[in-house]
Amino acid sequence: MRYSVDATGVADVMSDVSAHLDDVIEAVAQTLIAVDDAIASLRPDASDVRKVLVSVFSTRRRSGPGMASYAGDVARRVQDATLAYIAGDDEMAVQTDAVAKSTAETSYRRGSGSVVF
């Protein structure tokens, strides 16, 4: 039995994912710039609003870039796993062919009940 992976298909999907990750990274950066601009444009007497905005977006400021990085790491791991699967599949095919060839070369002596390899 032989399994296979559409390496080209995986590469195409990972290419799309990579392009979308670039979009996510850019969107996160633009969002943080917009938040900074909004905070900077607040009137001086809006310190309570400023504190709330800083507090609300501080978590996103830390997690946003981290999420994109994590997703990129996942994409790289999918690519690595695909390559490892293909290498293992190729190795299995070579070993299977070698066993099949060895089996085909086996001859049997008739009459004595013994097998000669």
Could you explain how this protein is built, in words?
By secondary structure, the chain is mostly helical. It has one domain (7-105). The chain is 79% helix and 3% strand. It is built from two helices and two strands. It has helices spanning 7-40, 47-105, and strands at 107-108, 115-116. Strands 1-2 form a two-stranded antiparallel sheet. Helix 1 (7-40) packs antiparallel against helix 2 (47-105). The longest helix has 59 residues, at 47-105. It is rod-shaped.
Number of contiguous helices: 2
Strand order of the largest sheet: 1-2
Derived from helix and strand composition plus strand pairing, the structural class reads mainly alpha
State the helical fraction. over 70%
Return the average pLDDT rounded to an integer: 79
Distance between the termini: 25 Å
Q: Kindly give the count of domains.
A: 1
- What is the molecular shape? rod-shaped
Q: Number of DSSP strands?
A: 2
The helix/strand order is HHEE
Low-confidence stretches: 107-111
Gyration radius, rounded: 30 Å
Which percent band covers the strand fraction? Answer: under 5%
Biggest beta sheet attributes:
2 strands, antiparallel
